[in-house]
Write a structure and sequence with these properties.
Elements (H helix, E strand, L loop, with lengths): L1 H25 L17 E4 L2 E3 L8 E5 L2 E5 L7 H10 L7 E5 L5 H4 L2 H8 L2 E5 L3 H5 L21 E3 L4 E4 L2 E7 L8 E8 L4 E7 L19 H11 L7 E4 L7 H4 L14 H21 L1
Parallel strand pairs: 4-5, 5-6, 6-7, 11-12
Antiparallel strand pairs: 1-2, 2-3, 3-4, 8-9, 9-10, 10-11
Helix pairs in contact: 6-8
C-alpha cells in the first residue's frame, strides 16, 4: 500500500511539473526590437495626478486618486519590477492599483499585465475587440499570432467606444481606434494641478505593422476600413496634452530630461500630433495605392 502511495505521489508530482512546464513554454515573448524597451527611466509627474512610470520607450501611465490608482500599459514581462519601483519612487503604493488598462494587446504593452494583475488583484479592462487576443496571450493576433507572446489575461470588463472608466474623481473615456490591433484604443480624460486643468489624450497611434496586402489578411477583413476610420477619428479630438504608447512617438526625450522640474506645458504639442498623424496618413495612402 505504501509503495502504491509513493508511486502515486511520484506520478502526480511528475504530471504537475510536466503540465506546469508545458504551460510555461507556451508563452514565448519575442526579442525586444530595441534595448530602449527595457531600459530604465526615471518616473515623473506629467500633469496633475498623471505620472509616467514606464521604461525609456514603452510608455506606462499612472493616474492616481484617493480611492486607488489606474495603470495604463505594462511594457515587457520583465518590466513589472521596474513599474512597481517607479510607482513607489513617486510615493504611491503599488498595492493601491485598482484598474489596469491597455492601449493595445501586443506583448510590448501587455507583457507584465498578468503578473501585475496577480500582484495587485486590480481589475483588467480591455477594448472588446482585443479581448480574445488578451485572453490567449496574443496567439490569435492577426499580425503576430501563432504562439502566445505574453501571459494570457482575461478581462474583468469589456470596453466599447466612448465607454467611461471611473475611479474616485477620475473619468476616462475609451476611444476605439482599431487597425494596429483590432481593439487598439486611446484614452481621453482631464487632470488638474494647482494652476489649471488639462485635457489629456493618451493616443494609440495607428502604425501599420504588416507587410502583406490588406486584402490578403483573412484574419482581419476590415483592416483597411478600420485604419481609415481611426485616421479620420483621431483628427477630430480636442485635447491640451497628448501622449502615446511609445515615448518616441510623442518625442518624450526631446521634451523632458530626467530631473527636470514639473512642467506640463511642454506636452502641449498639437503641431507635433498633427504632424505624426499626417505621416501615418501618408503611409496608409501609399500602402493602399501599392496594394
Amino acid at each position: 500500500m505504501l509503495k502504491f502511495l509513493s508511486l502515486s505521489i511520484i506520478f502526480i508530482t511528475i504530471f504537475l511539473l510536466t503540465s506546469f512546464s508545458s504551460t510555461a513554454q507556451k508563452v514565448k515573448e519575442p526579442k525586444a526590437l530595441s534595448p530602449e524597451w527595457s531600459k530604465p527611466y526615471q518616473p515623473f509627474r506629467i500633469a496633475g495626478n498623471l505620472y509616467y512610470v514606464g521604461t525609456y520607450d514603452l510608455a506606462c501611465y499612472l493616474i492616481t486618486t484617493k480611492q486607488g490608482h489606474i495603470l495604463i500599459n505594462t511594457g515587457l514581462a520583465s518590466s513589472a519590477a521596474q513599474i512597481k519601483a517607479n510607482i513607489e519612487t513617486l510615493g504611491f503604493k503599488f498595492s493601491d492599483l485598482k484598474i489596469l488598462l491597455t492601449t493595445q494587446a501586443h506583448y510590448d504593452h501587455m507583457g507584465a499585465m498578468a503578473a501585475i494583475k496577480k500582484m495587485t488583484d486590480a481589475q483588467m479592462m480591455v477594448d472588446e475587440k482585443d479581448a480574445a487576443v488578451s485572453a490567449d496571450g496574443g496567439s490569435s493576433d492577426y499580425a503576430f499570432g501563432g504562439t502566445s507572446s505574453f501571459e494570457p489575461v482575461k478581462a474583468d470588463r469589456l470596453l466599447h467606444n466612448n465607454d467611461t472608466i471611473q475611479l474616485g474623481n477620475m473619468q476616462l473615456v475609451m476611444l476605439h481606434h482599431p487597425g494596429h490591433t483590432k481593439g487598439s484604443c486611446s484614452f481621453l480624460f482631464t487632470v488638474k494641478d494647482e494652476k489649471r486643468s488639462y485635457r489629456v489624450l493618451i493616443a494609440n497611434m495607428p502604425t501599420i505593422v504588416i507587410e502583406k496586402k490588406f486584402a490578403d489578411i483573412s484574419a482581419y477583413p476590415d483592416i483597411a476600413e478600420d485604419y481609415a476610420y481611426t485616421l479620420h477619428a483621431m483628427k477630430n479630438i480636442p485635447f491640451d496634452i497628448w501622449l502615446a504608447s511609445h515615448a518616441s512617438q510623442f518625442k518624450l526625450h526631446d521634451k523632458h530630461k530626467p530631473g527636470d522640474t514639473y512642467n506640463p506645458d511642454i506636452f502641449i504639442d498639437k503641431q507635433g500630433y498633427d504632424a505624426a498623424l499626417s505621416d501615418l496618413q501618408r503611409q496608409y495612402d501609399k500602402k493602399m495605392k501599392d496594394d
